[in-house]
Amino acid sequence: MHAFDVLGDPVRRRILELLAGGEMTSGALCEVIGEEFGISQPGVSQHLKVLRENGFATVRPEGTRRLYAVDAGPLQDIDAWLDRFRRFWTPHLDALATELARGKRARRLRDADETPRSTP
Amino acid sequence: MHAFDVLGDPVRRRILELLAGGEMTSGALCEVIGEEFGISQPGVSQHLKVLRENGFATVRPEGTRRLYAVDAGPLQDIDAWLDRFRRFWTPHLDALATELARGKRARRLRDADETPRSTP
DNA sequence: CACTTATATAAGGGTTCACTGATATAGTTG
DNA sequence: CAACTATATCAGTGAACCCTTATATAAGTG
């Protein structure tokens, strides 16, 4: 399943949004999602499986619970795919700022201690 | 159809990649896509319709041809949605650089992501 | 106008997906 | 071990999606 397909489902997007705030147990997710979308525990569990199997989430057992957390790998892939379109909405940011934003070379920020002259 | 669903299809992603290079006619797209994916002209046309109807592409008639172009609006929405996960792969960029990169206006644009309450 | 080229729509079929209810696994506790 | 809690899996069903072939619209050309 492609990363975009995984994110095509609103339940899975919401789960990731929740996990963005930190680890959560399957049960806690079931509660919120069940409330918001009106779907059953197996329904949520199946979505968690999709997130797991596609690298969007990791799981860590703790006693009888299972703690889920975001794995940002596939999200980063999507971010990278979007690169080729960024020029459509960030007309001409100077290269340094773009580089910074992408995070390709965070180190350079320290070296060049300047305050990047903004041209927004 | 949600933006992520639109991008879930590899043919539509490829069409957008091609359009990222500049306007193209339906015919030219049919040729490349037909070649690469082995699908028919109506197949491609239907994908173009999806892209149009969901705001990913604009069309402009020129004689008997139709010129397609990228409309980056929905892509920007996706980029904005990814914001909440960026900290996972851009450890700690200072706020200024991030703000610069995102484009200050992008922030104001939209933050709302509908999380429907379904009625069973 | 008849003909051709460029593109879109229509109708139908096969496949995939997301749900539900029932059940299985696994850890915890009496 | 038995009972309970937390979570995952199974089997089945209805809907959505993407493709195909056939056909429609529309503009240019003799």
TrEMBL record, chains A, B:
<keyword id="KW-0238">DNA-binding</keyword>
<keyword id="KW-0804">Transcription</keyword>
<dbReference type="GO" id="GO:0003700">
    <property type="term" value="F:DNA-binding transcription factor activity"/>
</dbReference>
<keyword id="KW-0805">Transcription regulation</keyword>
<dbReference type="InterPro" id="IPR036390">
    <property type="entry name" value="WH_DNA-bd_sf"/>
</dbReference>
<dbReference type="InterPro" id="IPR051081">
    <property type="entry name" value="HTH_MetalResp_TranReg"/>
</dbReference>
<protein>
    <submittedName>
        <fullName>Metalloregulator ArsR/SmtB family transcription factor</fullName>
    </submittedName>
</protein>
<dbReference type="GO" id="GO:0003677">
    <property type="term" value="F:DNA binding"/>
</dbReference>
<dbReference type="Pfam" id="PF12840">
    <property type="entry name" value="HTH_20"/>
</dbReference>
<dbReference type="InterPro" id="IPR001845">
    <property type="entry name" value="HTH_ArsR_DNA-bd_dom"/>
</dbReference>
<dbReference type="InterPro" id="IPR036388">
    <property type="entry name" value="WH-like_DNA-bd_sf"/>
</dbReference>
<feature type="domain" description="HTH arsR-type">
    <location>
        <begin position="1"/>
        <end position="108"/>
    </location>
</feature>
<dbReference type="InterPro" id="IPR011991">
    <property type="entry name" value="ArsR-like_HTH"/>
</dbReference>
